[in-house]
Amino acid sequence: GAGVSQSPSNKVTEKGKDVELRCDPISGHTALYWYRQSLGQGLEFLIYFQGNSAPDKSGLPSDRFSAERTGGSVSTLTIQRTQQEDSAVYLCASSPTSGSYNEQFFGPGTRLTVL
Amino acid sequence: SQQGEEDPQALSIQEGENATMNCSYKTSINNLQWYRQNSGRGLVHLILIRSNEREKHSGRLRVTLDTSKKSSSLLITASRAADTASYFCATGDDKIIFGKGTRLHILP
Predict the structure, then answer these.
(1) Contacts with B50 from chain A: Cβ below 8 Å
(2) Nearest Cα residue in chain B from A42
(3) Which terminus, N or C, of chain A has the lesser number of Cβ atoms within 10 Å?
(4) How far apart are CA A55 and CA A73, in angstroms?
């Protein structure tokens, strides 16, 4: 079956512009996560959605970052007024449920470059 | 701060040798997971070990967990060129915290 997909795969933008990154989770997965990975670094948790519950936004680095998940499926991560330090690979993952013992399935990521 | 810290940061070994990577964490856990990442893109889940387990096998992979020392190790036996990748340990239930990873390079 289809895995997690993300679009675009690469995005180059100018400083100050807004960008939207999309994630299509595996069908039926109730949990969805966004992470950011800077060059040579580990993954930084950004935000987590579980079903209809309020999302855990504790990892968002600033109020320029926001995310929504429509209909419990597709998610969009929006970065407003992009800065050069926002350049990174943004990874999305989904899992069947939340909590212990749940494997996360990752998408291929979106590489964002802010000039 | 990072929950999991992998050691070493980088490792180069000859094909056919065994590779061992270690992970240390700080707080109590329910489970620990290991992931592999190729070419800086999506991660692939390798294995999950629960806090009440001490060792787990999956093919050429062996994972150990010592909750008293708050550490885990990932052993890859009979390494292959295709094992070249970065390996991350991860802890947490919903909010998964990843370490910075070990970059493994298998030399032909």
Answers:
(1) 100-101
(2) B100
(3) N
(4) 13
